[in-house]
Amino acid sequence: ACDWSSDVCSSDLVAMAQEAVRAVAEDARRLALAREQLGRALSAAGRKEEALEYFAEQVAHASDKSMALVELGNLHLQLGQPRKALAAHKQALAAAMESASPSLHAAQLALGVTLLNLNQCQAAIPHLELAALGADPKVCARAVSSLGTAWVRLRRPEKAQAALTAGIGRLPQEAPERAELLAQRRSLPSPRPSVKSQIGRASCRERV
Question: 31: which of 84, 132, 145, 161 lies 20 to 30 Å off by Cα?
């Protein structure tokens, strides 16, 4: 029999307990990953209401809480629930900033796009500008495209052109997203310097 008061047996007990904790943690990680994959599969299959349940549960277990909240908010947006998406994306940004998450730019993009969806163009612009600085070409390109859309809605095509030009310059030459941004820039309405920015803001209702 082992005398647990001895240093040897106590050391063995600690080692066994540590191994048990590691095993449970690994199982939890695998379960979280499996639930995340199932949620994405359900979403891709059009079963978005079911997917929503998995993504909501995933937030509590995800290693990157911010990205889980981004995906949850995106799903709310796809379901026509922009207010719920806004709440999730605000939480995603807060979580990313708190943990210095690598998904910070993705969270900025998600919040900016949701605000744009709600016609809160002016509020969306700072988030989209920060998202456009990200290293991921896809995140950068979508942020720049959304930024162009926001400025056009505010009837500031010169601002849209400047944003698109800067974004195109940041993307690698081989990035396929460059062609889409170039096409968007070509489709911009001609700038009209005499039109004051206040006139255009009527098309973008800013809500508190």
Answer: 84
